[in-house]
Queue: 4 jobs
Job 1
Amino acid sequence: MNTIFVAGHSKLPTGIAANHISESLTLTLEVDQNYGVIIDASCTLATDHGRDFIKTLLKGYSLKDGIEGPLARLHEGYLGKAGNALEAALKDSHKQYQLHTEKS
């Protein structure tokens, strides 16, 4: 297998639809081991549309290049209340990726 599965977590703000399902947000990334490129992404936002948007937003970025690009795109494109939670989950995912690459 040439990909790894990375998960990041964060706390959701109160008063949003996803919070009725869970108090935390999970962002998962399938990442190519050689190049660090995000092949697929998923998150626990409440709507299919929101989950699809985040997937489209993150696919193609390389975690080897850091997360400044995906964070900037997230700030520009996602205007919902879960923005800070998505940012924190992305940072957590990147941290998990870095821990894995340091061990390899």
Job 2
Amino acid sequence: MNAGGDHADDEPREKCGVVGVSLAGRDAARPLYYALYALQHRGQESAGIVTHDGFQQHSHVERGLVGDAFEPGDLESLAGSTGIGHVRYPTAGSLDKSCAQPFSVSFKSGSLGLSHNGNLVNADEVREELAAAGHAFTSDGDTEVIAHDLARNLLEEDLVRAVKHTMNRIHGSYSLAITHDDTVLGVRDPMGNRPLCIGELEDGYVLASESAAIDTLDGELIRDVRPGELVVLEPDGSGYDTYQLVERDSTAHCFFEHVYFARPDSVIDGELVYEVRRELGRKLWEESGVESDVVMPVPDSGRAFATGYADAAAETTADGAVREDEGGIEFAEGLMKNRYVGRTFIMPTQDERERAVRLKLNPIRSTVEGKSVTIIDDSIVRGTTSTQLVELVREAGAEEVHLRIGAPPIVAPCYFGIDMATRDELIASDKSTEEIRDRIEADSLSYLSIDAVAEALDASRADLCLGCVTGEYPFDVEGEATDRPVDAPPADVTAADD
């Protein structure tokens, strides 16, 4: 749904996507380029690729979409059969090109390239420590902090120990694709907050934020990279080694990956995202179904939820009884999406900004006119878009408009890589569901419960990051509550345990 103007601002923005490949006998640049296209939904601010040809590192990083950031000659200049790529939406650091990735650095022990999905919560502390030791920084992003810390450790330790040393120093969420000369590494934070998986290609191996990128390269998903695990790809594409460097008693998988961020055709932490969303929709019917004439999704984010909701409605009534009549509630596409509206179109007046959703979505009058309608969406952030949607459907002739949300209310910001609103901007942070319903002028409004999300993911609440819907976090964030004992690194760590 991230369209532009206020409509885009009313949705959480994607984080970042990372990819790394190691191939036998062919250049990595074009497969990396295709994989970044598959991950474009995760970031539209910048795109970049770093490769290594066995002798030197090559880099091309540019602002904009993948298709705009690379010319054919750019790919030809990126020699080498190993490399990493990145698409970015800024969540830490400024918007300028200096924070675009992959980040590259050369030092006495070789060259590093680093792509990062996530956000450190102790980046400032580590940056100050490194700066005091003589490291010069060119950006205010946390990715450069990781790169400098790893480079420092590589001066004194082998690759595996150096990575472990860095993992013991940084705190927060991260999935990393790294090049150290012609060796490609994948690292996932000890809580598994951000997704990362490994796949096999006909002539090598690939690491990626989502399995859809592996599919795009005609590869086979092997498995998710485990929380706290380091994966080292052989430079010739012949295999990989793994090292479990850090272990925790619980995980903190981001539930919002399944609700919103990931592509429906991706498998994350062993679950196909599309099927999870359908199950979330089924549970939404079980918890708060309303008998209406038609159920329709907000495209494209609400579609899988709405199909699950409609399937469940065909089996049981809203009060849970086995349905004896046929059909249940009609599923229909009642909102058409204009796919050619950019993210940054300019709305010069407040009235135009408030009505910007009309540039993005148009109701199909025959679907809603004279009917009671249930709209399914994945989230409500500020409430602006929901208000406009309800108004739009009423003006198209709907007699009743009910809104069902396939996630719990977002009551707190995300500190771990999602560009989400502050508490002051989050409509659910200080308003009840009834107050929000009144604000958006819907006939009824219901969210999915946190327990239903955990059940749909076949996970315990203790293994999920639920900070944005509970206000309690799995990492040690200054001024915020935690939902578990947090194993944060001490300040000024100078050596790691072997």
Job 3
Amino acid sequence: MLIILVAMMLGGCAVGPDYRTPLLATPSHWSGTGVATARPALPRWWSRLRDPTLDRLVAEAVDGNLDVATASARVREARASYRQAVGALLPTIANSDSARLAKGAGVSSAAPGRPNLGGPSSSVGSDGTSGLYQAGFDASWELDLFGANRRAVEAAAYGIDASDENLRAVLLTLVGDVASSYVEARGYQARIVLARRTATSQDETTKITRDRLAAGTASAADLANATGQAATTRSVIPTLETAYAVAVHRLSVLTGRPPAALSALLAQPKPIPAPKLPVPAGIPADVLLTRPDVRLAERRYAQSTARIGQAEAALYPSVSLAGNIATSGTKLGDLGRNSSISWSLGPTLTVPIFNGGKLRAAVEIAQAQRDQQFLAYQTSVLTALKDVEDALVSLSNEQSRSRILATSTTAYRQAASLSQTLYRSGSSSFLDVLTAERSLYGAEDALLQSRVRIVSDYIALNKALGGGWDGEVDTLTPEVIDVDTGPHPAGPITLRSAEL
């Protein structure tokens, strides 16, 4: 009883370090100049691209993406692991019933695995057979003296948090990938339209040159150059169509469907989405709260800290209570009579004396793993800060580049129009026309690519700030619904020849 009393006094004791959220220094502001410091508007950031098709695809991807389903299953696993850890804090009770008939000498009246504590002897019949019926309950309870089980529950709780943050991280990546693939697809469509329009215009130039050649005002070299330039422009179209198809296939798979499933939905070209700029970026410390990968790393650090206590508890004594109550009789009617009831109850003390240093090594392993998780947390913070800085710089510089390209495109469009007019009137050489058309096509194509890049940088910035899916995700429904899980006839056993 003294052992039980001490166990009760130590019931709230726990060994190992208690977790404290680390305080990491972060810059007071982003290094870019002219950046809004208002808190970033992260919820449903993709809707600010004002594209209903994109909104639809994001919702479908959240419902159908296989990575999201996998992360949801890990959430269910973590929650079940927590319930399993909590169960270790409670007593366990098991029922056992038995009935035996025996014949021959040396028949014991005790059931296998249970001592005979004074129960009735088997009565031997005239034919030499004896019967014995037993029923009882076994109970055990490990007194968590030094908090090993409580630390396990703590670690499992952190595991739930980590699985939730992992799901958020998967959703963040998914939404960003869907938006990026969609914008790329629209960009390739716009470039295909541009290439076809430019090739058609160059075909008209070729026709004019052919007419001038027939009239003797142009050379065969001019016609060859015009034909070659139109063909060169058309040769770009298959490459762009391939890139477009790859983007559509990737987008279809992200939504959990076959690669060509979205071909009909996206077949009609639409404008490249344009974000509203500038984007509020907040302050660097915000990413500690908004980035799911940072929060995931912090939860894993907390979980590894709790596991140190689990390992240290094994260095100390452990106490468990075990008991049983049983009734036995040579007839079913004898069960439950006072004369046939037996019971036992008592504590068991286990003290580690010598184990070759294994338990201490386990503590050191847990401490080293904790250090690794702490360093991983620090790395995730630095990576998050870098991602935001990179996106801010890239977005700002691409905006400047796009404005320059717009000016260049306007100038080349005027030059192409003037060169065509002068060429028709015979006041300009055909080389001027070719140069102007080639320059205009290059500038327009570069401007389209820059617009895609601006949207891609906008997406990257929102991802870096921690913007992802903020709606509900079903983490309760299993992907595989089992049937006939209760007792049922087993199927035939198939033996392979190699195993016989």
Job 4
Amino acid sequence: MTQQATAMRHDAHIAPTPLAAAAPAARTHADPSDTREMIALIGAGPSGLAGARNLQKRGIAFQGFEAHTDVGGLWDIDNPRSTVYESAHLISSKRTTEFAEFPMRDAVADYPSHRELRRYFADFADHFDLRRHYRFGVRVLRVEPVDANDADTLWRVTTQRLADGLEDSAEYQGVVIANGILAEPNVPRLPGHFDGELLHTSQYKRASQFQGRRVLIVGAGNSGCDVAVDAVHHARSVDLSVRRGYYFVPKYIFGKPADTLGGKRPLPRWLKQRVDSLVLKWFTGDPTRFGFPRPDYKMYESHPVVNSLVLHHLGHGDIQVKADIERLDGHRVHFKDGTQQDYDMVLLATGYRLHYPFIDAQLLNWQGMAPRLYLNIFAPRYRRLAVLGMVEASGLGWQGRYEQAELVARYLDGLRRDTPAARQLQSAIAGPAPDLSGGYRYLQLERMAFYVHKDTYRAAVRSASARLA
């Protein structure tokens, strides 16, 4: 499953294991003035670091840019763009999420906190000497092709140094975008007006914000449920407003992290949906008895909620389920089932949207709710424009993003050497994209617009990468 939340635990030091102790690969550090032979890499979060490591391994010169002062992306809570909160933990276990070449220590919790993860990424960057490739405290303002009609165009990257506002511009051979997908809040317009405090979960940091308040949380996805569990210990009341039903997955099944169970051979889609739905009923029962609508989709056609505590608090009356919102009126919220109630705070757990403000959407082949990229990576019009991390799948983990970065680095290396395999991939990128759904009929929602089936996706990326090796 993927990425955020529940309950606090103490920090644990994370150090490289013997598996991660191999010496870093040969490094390239080109003359900073020679940018036309370099790749511009945007972001130093998990996907950005995966990109940096793989460019480094292939000996491809690159310049990294990170607006914050250190690595870690959203997992560094001190990053002004971080959307994690004090109680945030992974919702996928460490073994299904970590980078394979740099495992987390056994002493690290099954579901690490943001503190442990911040240290993990710092250690990863230190171990492979990645920080020296980055300019920190530098925001990318614009990414533009020098010649929009040339597939091999250079790219003009304009940046701003945040310390003093100084702007700079340089031309690069290519651009790899890895600025994350969980930073720009999706804020829906609710009819009416609210006289209390209206926030998005991106503005939530600690449970004391709920002290003594009547709280309505809009949305019961992973963040919404995590925050609701936080709120019950401080708020006067906690309600969840939902539009659709959910599948709730406990973090542990038979005493082991739920995402570590299952055979080595993937089950057929129809059988996995049937078996896993049955297992969930054994462990969580039927959520409709707490007031949730029955899901109008099959399991895994939307991202499941990985939370062991929200149903517990629903069963104890600490949280109440409400219908979708019809309108706001002062402190009163009117719901579509005809009920109404007063609140002091409305917290929007309505997710995030893709946000690449520094580049024209057409250059990324944006269609509808998301860019249409080959393997969710490659822009079809340009040979050296790629995106890392614009993918979501149940169980993909950071290793799945690492494999994206490996493919990008191998492709750029192949273009540099003009290999037949690189030319073959170049033709594939320009052609029809493969079906990455694995046969699942995903909900037609903005947050699902770049969703893929993990096994199908990783097989496609690995296959393309192997042909370039």
